[in-house]
Amino acid sequence: MSKSYVIGFPRIGEQRELKKVLESFWANNCSFNEVQEVASKLKARHWEYQKDAGIEYISSNDFSLYDNILDTSIMLNAIPNRFKNLRGEELYFSMARGNDTTVAMEMTKWFNTNYHYIVPELSLEDEYKLNASKIINEYKEAKTLGIKTKINLIGPITFLGLSKRVDRKDPYELLGKILPVYEELLKEIAKLDEVVTIQIDEPIFAKDNEVKVLSLIKPVYDRLSIVTNNLKIIVTTYFEHSNEATKILVTTPIWGIGLDFLYGEENFESLATIARNKKKLIAGVVDGRNIWKNDIQNSLSILGEISKVIDKNNLIISSSCSLLHTPFSLKYEDKMDENIKNWLSYSVEKLEEIKLISKIFYNGVNSLDDKETKVFEGNIHANHDRKTSKIIHDEKVQKRVSNFSKLQRNGKYEDRIKVQKELLNYKDLAITTIGSFPQTPEVRTARRDYKKNTISKDEYETQMKNYINDCISFQEECGIEVLVHGEPERNDMVEYFGEQLKGYGFSQNGWVQSYGSRCVKPPFIYGDISRPKAMTVDWITYAQSKTKKIMKGMLTGPVTILNWSFVRDDKQKDEVSKQIAIALSDEIDDLQNAGIKIIQVDEAAFKEGYPLRKEKIKTYEDWAVRDFKIAVSSAKEETQIHTHMCYSEFNDIIKTIEAMDADVISIETARSGNELLKIFKEVGYKQEVGPGVYDIHSPRVPSVEEMVKQIKLLLEVLPKKQLWINPDCGLKTRKWEETKQSLQNMVEAVNYIRKENR
């Protein structure tokens, strides 16, 4: 006997096939039929991988052309009014990306990960009705291939908890309207087979929930569980413990509960109540969020503890969460150091780990064949080798970190800003951008050719400098006032720095989905971190030499470098973060000594690193703020420090942002109106703020009038002397034609406002 289960599987494709066909379709270079053909091939291949690995519980409906929450909105007919005249793929992608006349729906982070979901917009006037075609068709697709899948659904409580109502009222008030649609869906699913397993994801249960939310659980799952008697409903949570919800769920007729025992160790407290109520337990013991080879002996130990309470017959071995958050397969990593590669495990390799753990746990080590025994022994050796390897531990780094005493920069903000304004002489509503400019095919090709040694260093640098020259010329002609160099030399805002820091590793094909077709290739931290030499000084000083305007230095902050990397699991995160911060403080000192007057230290991922449980937040905030302040501690009073944060709810962290003590913060606000900005006024925020005036995640070009209106809304919240004007985020993923027109419109809008307010 062995039981193996995977919460979900990556969908972008092992060679990013989905990304490529989607972007081809959006560029009008292929038909939607071609998108569907690629999607069908990917689903079939992904199911086959799992089947070949011996996984018993394989998912359908975990695949998406953009986002599963967006798919759920379509399933429920939760369509905002501005899109209701659209149909099919035009409707779907317009909701996600906007179109020529309509702004996209808001996008934000999926709990504390780097994945983004499309935030549902709900209204009391919505008429919810079932559209089950995607769900039904995927199940049938798999069945024609001889694979019987479980069907993955986003749960109704999580869907509402992650939604927003246009009238700003409580989304949970709409439960009575959407629950009948879920009931109808389950009836349709019940027609597919004699017995169908349904995985209903309720990750919202892993957060601190109010009593009114917890009170919804029993009536919802009592109703859903009795819709029909041929469905086996499993409710899954992940990323933290869900003890409060679990106590309620076990009293409903659901078949099983999926819990994360790696990131939610407190779930052990729920074992007794699960056992008493004789529910199946899907035990998440293989890490779905990190890339380190599973310690099979440790997993077996965890399962041994669980099985002291839960009967083995009621246990199923699983990934801790969907494997969406890990790269596809190690088989393409043919340039990686073999010793380091032997420490890693991507999604396909995790399937084998789940299978092996399951077989040993249920049938014993003696049940393994020769090949499996060799794999198990190799796993033990790899984990031991990683713990003792000399390339992991650097005594010099450890000594410097323990003795580092400069924990913040000199001077109060009120004093610094006076010095900075006099020296930098910038206007109210100062115009800048966040950092990157469009990465053209030529830039990417040059970078790739240089890495492959098919062009010389001189040829590469000439091409990069030509791009920088063009960026500067455009910004000067356009009227941008504080310039950036465009970052052509940077493949990614974290990977670029990781490549120059000791203790980092890199992949060729370690892509994971961030949103839609957007993929990132996080580096991984395997050892102690140090900076052998300056990382950005040559590029930034070159750019500054080409203009009389101020050129911003651009760095990624320590917390974001940490949160957007796969982090070593043999050391506490706060220790790793401090090592990165000290390395960055050296870089800032080098930049300012080279004549760079403004340095932006991006903390785009600061909020997503927050623990889901309140009792753990203070510890995170303490070291995250500490390490930002350490990174900028070398900055002189006259050096202006900017930071940037991506989509976040700032209401609960505004005091933490204040404590970071940056001189200027830019934030993404275009998709959410002024809601994010109002909190800055409410708390009397003193520092300067750059709220994004247009959404860079959409290809549409906002008009001058639209941005004039947006700036006027900003001025209703904060005075002009406190405001900077910029796009929402970096422009790396956009095309030049839309970027140029958008920025020209932005500058024109600022000039109009300035004239109007003379």
Characterization of this structure:
The relative contact order is 0.09. The protein has 2 domains: 4-62 and 131-364, TIM Barrel (Alpha-Beta Barrel), CATH 3.20.20.210; 411-756, TIM Barrel. The strands form 7 sheets. Strands 1-12-11-10-9-8-6-2 form an 8-stranded parallel β-sheet. Strands 14-19-20-21-22-23 form a 6-stranded parallel β-sheet. A two-stranded antiparallel sheet has the order 3-4. It is globular and about 75 Å long. With 758 residues, the protein is an alpha/beta fold. The chain is built from 27 helices and 24 strands. Helix 1 (17-26) runs antiparallel to helix 2, helix 17 packs antiparallel against helix 18 (457-478) and helix 26 (704-715) crosses helix 27 (736-756).
Q: Helical element count?
A: 27
Low-confidence stretches: none
The first-level CATH class name of the largest domain: Alpha Beta
Task: Provide the helix percentage.
Answer: 40-55%
Cα end-to-end separation? 79 Å
Q: Compute the average pLDDT.
A: 95
Q: Which fold name is given in CATH as the topology of the largest domain?
A: TIM Barrel
Helix-strand makeup class: alpha/beta
Main sheet makeup: 8 strands, parallel
Strand order of the largest sheet: 1-12-11-10-9-8-6-2
Key terms for this structure?
TIM Barrel, 27 helices, alpha/beta, six-stranded parallel β-sheet, eight-stranded parallel β-sheet, 758 residues
